[in-house]
Amino acid sequence: MSIDQKLESWVASANDPTTDFPIQNLPVGVFHVRGSDRLGVGVAIGDKILSLHDASELGILQGWRWRDVPTLAPLMMEGNATAASLRQQIAGILERSNTSAAAHASRILVAQSDVIMRMPTDIRGYTDFYASVNHAFNVGSMLRPENPLLPNYKYIPVGYHGRTSSIVVSGTDIRRPWGQQKGEPEPSVGPSQWVDYEVEVGALVGRDNALGEPVRIEQAEEHIWGFCLLNDWSARDVQAWEGQPLGPFLSKNFSSSISPWVVTMDALEPFRVPMAKRPVGDPSPLPYLTSDRNASRGGIDFTLEVWIRSAAMRARNVEAMRLSRASFSEMYWTFAQMLTHHTMNGCNLQTGDLLGSGTVSGKRREEMGCLLERTRRGAEPFELPGGEKRGFLEDGDEVILRGYAERDGMRRIGLGECRGVLTPAI
Amino acid sequence: MSIDQKLESWVASANDPTTDFPIQNLPVGVFHVRGSDRLGVGVAIGDKILSLHDASELGILQGWRWRDVPTLAPLMMEGNATAASLRQQIAGILERSNTSAAAHASRILVAQSDVIMRMPTDIRGYTDFYASVNHAFNVGSMLRPENPLLPNYKYIPVGYHGRTSSIVVSGTDIRRPWGQQKGEPEPSVGPSQWVDYEVEVGALVGRDNALGEPVRIEQAEEHIWGFCLLNDWSARDVQAWEGQPLGPFLSKNFSSSISPWVVTMDALEPFRVPMAKRPVGDPSPLPYLTSDRNASRGGIDFTLEVWIRSAAMRARNVEAMRLSRASFSEMYWTFAQMLTHHTMNGCNLQTGDLLGSGTVSGKRREEMGCLLERTRRGAEPFELPGGEKRGFLEDGDEVILRGYAERDGMRRIGLGECRGVLTPAI
């Protein structure tokens, strides 16, 4: 159930029209107050965090059973109805007219500037999809100009397993990886020279399914708890050499970053859109990937942006530069389709599993969600303020992903930011 | 440190020359006594299990700190030296001359026939390699007759991420998966018709490494705690359609089975062999994958067998038929090389991670470790006792993997068995 667009909060910053976190959003995350042992589950509101533990201790929040557990997992496990009812209660606590809750502000609120955000949950499985047809086409056209999309693309939400141990939260530095690169007469071994980002949306699984029990598309969204941003850092030179026949491996598993706030399904209700219209001549999704709801409301109208700020820009106090902006509503496959496909063979998803959408790209250069596409494998570099050139990332570059849903007359529902600085190789 | 080949045990069945579990082996696992709440870590000895909890309670085993925890994880985390010293102590408990321990037999031993074995540890990451050049060649020659091995094969221990949630312990039924199969004008959707097994050795990671910190080949074996059998069940029709460009996904993640007993590094000391000799003209491994120890003792002289028993054979009390036997000593890459390659980019391995060797095959038909190779994609079926024909697996077929190291004058070190029955699709 979405929250009234007119509702305002006694947390003043939440009423700023530019905030990612108005009272209509209320994403959940795990915070740690810097220099203290205060650690817990919180909800972002403007530039503050509502501490659910403290609100519960003071009797302001009812039924919060997870005390100091620094993970969303037990909450996510209960599914979306529990999250939705918690959300309604929290909106009531934070709405402008709740002066008694506001009187406790100093005890239940924490400034976002005072915390380090932690991983929201223990991620046990990570599957990365390839659901942007523009991305698949742009990449495919470099590898196979005559045949950019493989014949399975329009039937299968293509995906593969990623590595969970190296998923880190926004703000964690990313070390440039070593790898093997193609070479003559022998491959070379050294730091990757083609380090790239990928802007993706991540979906976190709430309710699990048993091994052997597929999830039908009609129920698929009941298993998706919420969304975050995902940067699937990639070493393109390593990927080009290792990637066949079994897919990407070391080119991806050195690190992936996620944003710390999980925006729940409910908060996005006003931004659900029809599945993207397929080009004339493309097949309809197969029946097991088809439902009325998915066709009419399976998409989400997120806008995704990538920004970059080099070490030299930071030194000169130059702001980050935007590299791309693309719409998630153009994805060829919806998350419901990805989840249903993933389980069609009985594969069991677990609470906290991360499904990545794959790089989100449009057709035009300023919509391309990774440098491989944007600079055509480094061949067409771009310029940063101050004149630095980039084909791929250089040491010290910070990549900042931003994501949000917005529309006239609606409060902006932000995913927040996912940041990472590339540091030199070992 | 290996245990004296002449040592015998007061557990009579351990002295039988055909047992997988003489006192020289002592593999570790988690058992549950059927119909009771007795659950714990045990060591296989002949046809019995030594309960470490009970031996500790009686003061027979010293320093066992993990009481009833039904996982090997805390023990594995401590690394191989702790496991080796525990092993020496247990050999002392079980050796023939220890009459005081033998006097407690009824309290510290459990019959293997009375237990259900559990997963030995929580597997957090699963990486499957492709280290048998014979397997890669046999499969590649069906797909690309003119070019069976891709150019990276001789430089990279090729691997990819698998799914952990669907890994099950030996004895668990495997449900035939649904999937998409190639078809005209549209792909079809239905139960896979080409369900296959793959015989592999699994290595379980003990000591972890930190994100960003590669493990050099000289230290790689310090991170490998022990070995089991692995059946990486595969749906070949699904794999053929989905597998490009990002690798196998639903064709593999419906289930993988592992054997329950983990044979430690130490027990295999007498069976370490040089890395397989590469054919003339093949490149040497790159320097980061090279060490003197790996060259002289990086291999393990396991023999791996696959047996099959159909429902009709069970009904007629016909014993299982052997389908293949191959030597693990012929692998193109060692586990030390796989682990070092996996971490060269800083990827962090965690205690309990499973590394699969990939299908273990020889060159000859009776050495091929999956049906895809053995029947040439079903085109050359074989016959079972009673006349049934098989191109791929049929419902009710039980696949039994067996693995062991043996040599004249040495006690056999067995991995035990990994069993699974294919049940009908949902």
Describe the structure.
The structure is a homodimer of 426-residue chains. Chain A has eleven helices and 26 strands. Chain A has helices at residues 52-57, 73-77, 80-94, 99-102, 105-108, 133-143, 236-242, 292-297, 311-315, 335-343, 371-374; strands at residues 28-33, 39-45, 48-51, 109-111, 115-117, 126-129, 159-161, 167-169, 174-175, 178-181, 188-191, 195-196, 199-205, 224-231, 234-235, 256-258, 263-264, 272-273, 299-300, 302-309, 321-327, 354-356, 382-383, 389-390, 398-405, 413-423. Chain A has 426 residues and is of the alpha+beta class. In chain A, the strands form seven sheets. In chain A, strands 6, 7, 8, 13, 14, 16, 17 and 22 form an eight-stranded mixed β-sheet that branches. A five-stranded antiparallel β-sheet of chain A has the order 4-3-2-1-5. Chain A starts with 27 loop residues before the first strand and ends with a strand. Helices cover 18% and strands 26% of the residues of chain A. Chain A is globular, with a radius of gyration of 21 Å. In chain A, a hairpin with a 6-residue loop joins strand 10 (178-181) and strand 11. At the A-B interface, strand 7, strand 10 and helix 7 of A face strand 7, strand 10 and helix 7 of B.
Task: Describe the main β-sheet of chain A briefly.
Answer: 8 strands, mixed
Portion in beta strands of chain A: 25-35%
Mean pLDDT of chain A: 96
Helix coverage percent of chain A: 10-25%
Largest contact between chains: A-B, 62 and 63 residues
Cα gyration radius of chain A (Å): 21 Å
Class derived from helix and strand content of chain A: alpha+beta
